[in-house]
């Protein structure tokens, strides 16, 4: 999947490392989208991170095989994994990604939540989403799983 969606093996290796990390991997918070023939064409992954020392989730990597891009397969995978997280009682999700893509799922600049990154990130690309907007969300700096290397 990653080999066809990305130009290097970095994302595939990252997913393998996240899967092997019991502090990051959460069973049930990765999802795939299948095409009409049952082939995997997209996936989305949420892993444990912390914000200000409190539990949160990081979205990514997400991928879509080239032939299925712009078909809605990636959006379907992301919507499904966010819904799974909501059902599990999770709240804050953070993503570093395309400013034009993630707002369609409700993501807004993480700075609006008081969330900062441990690296320089443009406000329009470092985004957050409260799955339960009526509840408070943690504030502070995000600490990603070790596999992310930040």
Automatic annotation (TrEMBL):
Keyword check for Iron-sulfur: no
Protein name per the record: N-acetyltransferase
Gene3D superfamilies in the record: 3.40.630.30
Domain N-acetyltransferase: 1-128
EC supergroup of this enzyme: transferase
InterPro entries noted in UniProt: Acyl_CoA_acyltransferase, GNAT_dom
Annotated source species: Mycolicibacterium fortuitum
Annotated GO MF terms: acyltransferase activity, transferring groups other than amino-acyl groups
Keywords: Acyltransferase, Transferase
Enzyme Commission number(s) from the entry: 2.3.1.-
Pfam families: Acetyltransf_1
